[in-house]
Write a structure and sequence with these properties.
single chain; 696 residues; alpha+beta; 6-stranded mixed sheet; 3-stranded antiparallel sheet; 24 helices
Length: 696
């Protein structure tokens, strides 16, 4: 209404003669413009396949697609879930708004009357797309109790967590230690006489720092602390500690708590600090699903030394799963905007400016990210299956044999996928020019929400070294004729010296591309292992760190490429030939672009020669042209609702410019023509100036 009133006021001062003089000029301009809504509609009509069929495939069936749409309808119909004006909120308003959404979830989930309310809640959290004060309660506090508590502890704590009778966080990272868990300094010393643990922060650097929800929200924390019994250090273990009073939310005696202040983003989350001053907790505050401390102080270790890493492995696996979602979001916004944005001299045939997506550079930037989003989707499914299969076997049969591979895979893929996704979000923003920098575009909050993945739950370079240790151990076992290798490491047995791509095999042979990725991983792991000689893992990781990180990245790239090809091969029976054809283009584009972007690693030992490298580059350009007509339909197939995207540039109808114009009218900064401080700063200066009609 306010915008309409402004337009009416502006129009009322224009006389008819002025309008008549201006009309021919306006007609010239209008004739060369294009309606972005019509542009996007035409783009969808070009598709060579059925986007809804692919959407159903990606989401596990048409029923799931329907459920997600129903959930979006429920959320957009309730004021509490509204995202209107979100990008203009101050931090305290954003915190409160996000918390209100999370607290409204139980009622909204119940209203859906679905058989699987946990699944509905997960999708609703995904759609909210704003990490908040309850994130770690749901994402780490509860899973830690489920994964590391014994049956009695789970029965006691989980109902309280679900009812929000307590709100928890996960306090691991300290001011002085993050990735190196064995270096954590918070202590839990057992007092046999009282059957209590004394939780203490003996140094400034032992202050817990960064836990989400700790700053203001949480009443309890899973505290990762060094366990001492009978004078012996047993390493890091989890303890549930109440840190705030439920009745008034004040810190309990011995607990010093606060918020660490604004970050680069992520500010709906109250990341906090926490210090303990000889805080006593009962013996059963220690989560005893694996390790135990008896009443007399006897320590009973876990059956597998690293089984306590369960929560960390879960979170790293979850980061891999989320990478695909964030990449899909960014590339959907960017491609839709590039499809309707026009920028060039008017084309003589169409009379319109060129669509930005038709510039080859835009395609070479966006289409590989599009393909990678599909690859990461497949990797996400692979990681999910791997993790839950381990959970099943470890709980049912106490079989922890898969933990080393799971730990190494989740560590490496967490690093690889988070690096790639962070860079992809920024690359997508850059293809959208100046408008991409606006908060209303959605890239800013998307990047700010995702970027912490690169550094939390383990520094990425250190995580690559954890994968590298696994690769070194496997290589040495294989070389000594030891146990057989997992299928993901079968490439260590050796590789051909020359690629068949573009020679004996087509450049679009997905298996030949997988062989190329396997060869690179084999060569880099083998070279690093040979350079290590008989050095200990610790020594070679220090001495040859750069080589091992590169080897771990190559292994992860192979796992992703191999998984993408396997998933592609498995879906032939579920979709039509047209959909298979477009998926095949994406598989090949992902593989060839990954090679082209790191071609030196394939040229170095002659596996690929110069002619093959040139052929790969030309094939990429052909693939870009073939994918171009399907661009709109491919991002549609992700099934990302406008509510989730929350982007003026990426909405499904393509009405970019109207959304931008209308949404900025609502900005608090536009509610007065006088800027803050006008009376005391600007008015004294400006009031001295008087202007009439210029005589120049």
């Amino acid at each position: 209404l306010r915008a309409h009133e402004r337009r009416v006021a502006l129009m009322s001062h224009v006389d008819e003669r002025t309008r008549a003089l201006q009309a021919p000029s306006s007609a010239v301009i209008v004739a060369s413009t294009s309606n972005p809504v019509d542009d996007l509609r035409r783009e969808r009509a070009k598709a060579s396949f059925n986007a809804r069929e692919l959407e159903a495939l990606l989401h596990g069936g048409a029923d799931m697609v329907h459920l997600r749409r129903r959930i979006a309808d429920v959320m957009t119909s309730q004021d509490v879930f509204s995202k209107r004006g979100k990008y203009f909120l101050e931090r305290d308003e954003l915190y409160k708004s996000t918390l209100a959404k999370y607290l409204a979830l139980p009622k909204a989930v119940t209203s859906m009357k679905e058989k699987d309310p946990i699944q509905v809640a997960r999708i609703m959290r995904e759609f909210i797309d704003e990490p908040g004060g309850l994130d770690l309660h749901l994402g780490m506090f509860i899973p830690t109790i489920q994964g590391q508590g014994d049956e009695e502890q789970r029965k006691y704590w989980i109902p309280k967590c679900v009812k929000l009778e307590c709100i928890g966080t996960y306090a691991q990272t300290e001011l002085g230690h993050g990735t190196y868990l064995r270096g954590l300094e918070t202590t839990a010393t057992y007092d046999e006489s009282s059957e209590e643990f004394i939780i203490h922060s003996p140094t400034l650097t032992s202050t817990k720092w960064w836990p989400g929800g700790l700053g203001k929200t949480s009443t309890h924390a899973v505290v990762m602390a060094r366990l001492f019994t009978k004078g012996k250090d047993h390493g890091v273990h989890p303890f549930i500690v109440q840190i705030r009073e439920n009745k008034n939310h004040e810190p309990l005696p011995g607990c010093t708590i606060g918020d660490i202040g604004n970050k680069m983003g992520y500010n709906a989350v109250d990341n906090g600090f926490l210090r303990f001053d000889h805080v006593r907790v009962p013996r059963r505050a220690m989560l005893m699903g694996h390790s135990k401390v008896e009443a007399d102080g006897t320590y009973i270790p876990a059956p597998v030394a690293k089984v306590s890493y369960g929560t960390m492995v879960f979170i790293r696996s979850d980061i891999v799963m989320n990478a695909a979602l964030f990449m899909k979001k960014a590339v959907t916004i960017a491609i839709r905007y590039n499809l309707v944005r026009r920028q060039s001299n008017v084309h003589p045939n169409s009379g319109k400016e060129c669509q930005v997506i038709d510039y080859q550079h835009s395609q070479r930037t966006l289409f590989p990210i599009l393909a990678k989003a599909f690859a990461f989707h497949c990797t996400s499914d692979f990681m999910r299956r791997m993790y839950f299969e381990f959970q099943k076997k470890s709980r049912k049969d106490q079989d922890f044999s898969a933990l080393p591979e799971l730990h190494a895979t989740s560590s490496g893929l967490k690093a690889y996928c988070s690096w790639e996704t962070k860079d992809a979000i920024e690359a997508c923003r850059l293809t959208c020019g100046g408008h991409g920098y606006m908060a209303l575009a959605g890239f800013g909050t998307t990047f700010a929400s995702y970027a912490p993945n690169v550094t939390y739950e383990g520094d990425n370079n250190v995580l690559c070294l954890q994968t590298a240790r696994y690769l070194l151990k496997a290589y040495r076992k294989m070389s000594s004729g030891g146990e057989s290798l997992p299928s993901a490491l079968s490439y260590l047995h050796g590789s051909d010296s020359q690629s068949q791509l573009g020679q004996g095999a087509s450049l679009r042979d997905e298996n030949a591309i997988v062989d190329a990725y396997a060869h690179r991983a084999w060569r880099l792991v083998t070279d690093a292992a040979r350079n290590a000689g008989n050095m200990s893992p610790d020594d070679t990781m220090r001495e040859h760190m750069v080589s091992w990180i590169k080897a771990a990245k190559a292994h992860c790239a192979f796992v992703i490429m191999n998984t993408f090809v396997q998933e592609y091969s498995d879906v032939h029976q579920y979709v039509k030939a047209e959909t298979i054809a477009v998926l095949h283009r994406l598989v090949i584009l992902h593989g060839l672009c990954g090679m082209d972007d790191t071609m030196g690693e394939f040229l170095e030992d002659g596996y690929i020669d110069a002619n093959q490298a040139a052929g790969i580059r030309e094939e990429i350009f052909r693939l870009l042209a073939e994918i171009r007509p399907d661009a709109a339909a491919l991002v549609d197939s992700f099934g990302l609702h406008d509510y989730f995207l929350n982007s003026a540039l990426g909405a499904k109808d393509g009405d970019v410019y109207r959304r931008l114009y209308e949404q900025v009218q609502e900005a608090p900064f536009n509610q007065s023509h006088q800027p803050p401080g006008y009376a005391e700063l600007l008015k004294p200066k400006l009031s001295k100036g008087t202007f009439g009609v210029s005589k120049l």
